[in-house]
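Model it.
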Amino acid sequence: MKIAVFCVGNRLMLDDGIGPAVYDELVEHYEIPEGVDLYDLGCMTMKLLNKVDEYDFIITVDAVDGTDSEPGTVFRYKPEDIARTQDAMASLHELVDLFDAAQLLGYSCDGICYGMQIENMSPAELVEGLTPKVYERLPFLVETVVAELDRQGYPLTRKEV
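Modeled.
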């Protein structure tokens, strides 16, 4: 089995950079086993369509908004559970459209999406970094992704410091 972790978001838009922040933590602190590929994708596009066919399972990490939950709250969704409307789940950067298009082309894989409720992803100026509440919960989101990889048969080990 081959797994991809799609870390989605814009590093220059505060909490929209939660996906890239998870990517950085995984690369810096964990040994990534063969069979697992990590991607810092920026914003998801249809250019990733062929990637859906290359993997058996895709984990997507992204920011969500509009959940009425506290910033830093982590959500777990199956791609088909994400609403196809302009609400909280729409911030998962066209993931549903990507999987729908892949299915139409005969590509298939399983997947799961992890989203974190943001506090601010529309700064007045471009700035890298997360808001304090979201940053505080970053380790929890990273450990959630690590646990998902373990459930899929790919346990990660921490790098020695």
